[in-house]
Design brief:
By secondary structure, the protein is an alpha/beta fold. The chain contains 13 helices and 19 strands. It is globular.
Length: 463
């Protein structure tokens, strides 16, 4: 039984900031004490003087090895979880995909096979429902019981993931009865497809048109619609990757009425914009994702939504495709550019920069990046906090260090950075996953297979 103590740091959780020493035993936090008041014996002491001691990040939205348009996201579970650890994230929740015409179980089994024995950090799964029918609705109960307690549906991507309003309502009704949480990709995909076809017919083929056809109003319309469907079903709903002020307003309106409606945004919507999509020489393809990047003026509304808790979570929607050979598939036709950005390694640092910039408090940083995603998806107590009994997923973070984000130094398996050249203040120094040192002073000490699969409870954020 190894014991580790972390001394001298400022422990920051969503609830409080306090100077404390932390004692870890058998992979769990066993005690916190005022500095120097306990003479613990430990096999290892980590000096965190002048540093923050924070919970490991919980990224509740990643897509490792995800198939898309004839190719696959370039990070495997091995490379993607290693990169996450480098960035101070110690838990991911990825999306298993139901193969059309097959069972939810077939999709879940396939994703277990991809991840088992490969992950450097702990992981769980959401379930993407491609077919809503009597059989898959029945399967939802069993999945919730075994720890897959959230299900994603799409109002976008007709012919791929699209569900109509009736299917969405049925899934929401089932979730209302079994405690599951429905996650919605909210864009009006049928209308978007019309606009895509019209744009291409006009010869508008560059990446920037990806943002222009996926209109903010169509995100807002779909967001409004899924909120009303959830209201009819008596179910909570979680809207993923909110990018537009108009969609956020729909969520805020519902929340102000006391409805169990939740919203997530991502660093790309907070730090990037349509200016990136418009970069010349097809460089804009690097920034094609859905929902799309918006004009810069949307950013202020998203930051405000994070401060007012109309948005509760920042996840990455990490779905990387290399520029060379993958993004390039869409030269001459923006609709063929694989949708997705790399970001699992950058989230904690970018959000710390938001603290430096005055957008967020330190506690709110931890709340949106660690505590609330854990609570929203049934992991809190084990993940998302530093408290006796919690897994010792802990990051020693140097708030004064400076770094420049670059593909030359990142660890994601992708040939560009969405934040190339961005200077940020703050850096991960040491990362522990269940008490084991994974990252220490610029070296990776982890291993594939250390990460365990997490069976999740139902959402702890409701009520």
């Amino acid at each position: 039984m190894t014991r580790t103590q972390i001394t001298g740091g400022l422990v920051i959780t969503a609830a409080e900031e306090t100077h404390a020493d932390v004692l870890i035993e058998s992979g769990r936090v066993v005690a916190l004490a005022a500095p120097g008041t306990q003479s613990w014996t430990a096999d290892r002491t980590i000096d965190a003087t002048g540093k923050y001691v924070i919970p490991g990040g919980v990224d509740a939205h990643t897509h490792m090895e995800m198939p898309f348009g004839g190719t696959f996201a370039s990070d495997t579970f091995e490379s993607g979880t290693r990169a996450a650890a480098w960035g101070g994230t110690t838990t991911i929740i990825d999306f298993a995909i139901q193969p059309p015409g097959q069972s939810l179980r077939a999709g879940l089994d396939a994703w277990h096979a991809k991840a088992d024995g490969k992950c450097a950090i702990d992981y769980g799964f959401h379930m993407i429902m491609s077919d809503v029918n009597e059989s898959s609705l029945k399967e939802m109960d069993g999945l919730v019981a075994e720890g897959v307690s959230s299900f994603k549906l799409f109002t976008a991507y007709p012919g791929v993931f699209f569900s109509d309003d009736g299917d969405i309502l049925r899934a929401m009704q089932k979730a209302a009865s079994n405690g599951g949480l429905i996650m919605m990709h909210a864009e009006n995909g049928l209308a978007i497809d019309v606009l895509v076809e019209q744009a291409l017919a006009r010869g508008e083929t560059d990446p920037r048109y990806h943002g222009e056809v996926r209109k903010a109003l169509l995100e807002a319309e779909a967001t409004h619609r899924v909120i009303k469907l959830a209201q009819v079903a008596g179910a909570p709903v979680y809207v993923v990757h909110v990018s537009a002020e108009e969609a956020l307003n729909e969520i805020a309106t519902a929340r102000h009425k006391g409805l169990p409606v939740f919203g997530e945004t991502c660093p790309q919507y907070l730090f990037l914009s349509t200016d990136n999509l418009a970069e010349p020489d097809f460089e804009g393809a690097k920034y094609v994702c859905s929902t799309p990047l918006r004009p810069r003026e949307h950013q202020a509304a998203l930051w405000r939504g994070l401060r007012t808790n109309d948005l509760q979570v920042v996840s990455t929607d990490h779905c990387p495709f290399c520029f060379t050979g993958q993004k390039e598939r869409g030269r001459g036709d923006f609709s063929k550019i694989p949708n997705g950005l790399p970001g699992v390694e950058n989230r904690m640092d970018l959000l710390h920069q938001a603290v430096v910039d005055g957008h967020l408090t330190r506690r709110r940083w931890i709340e949106i990046a660690c505590a609330t995603p854990a609570r929203m998806f049934g992991l809190y107590g084990r993940k998302g906090t530093i408290a006796p009994g919690a897994d010792a997923d802990i990051v020693v973070y140097d708030p004064a260090a400076e770094q420049v984000i670059s593909a030359a130094t990142h660890h994601m398996n992708v040939d560009y950075s969405a934040y190339e050249g961005k200077r940020v203040t703050g850096r991960v120094e040491t990362v522990l996953s269940r008490g084991e040192v994974v990252i220490e002073r610029g070296r990776f000490h982890g291993r594939p297979g250390h990460g365990l699969y997490l069976a999740r409870a139902t959402s702890q954020y409701l009520g």
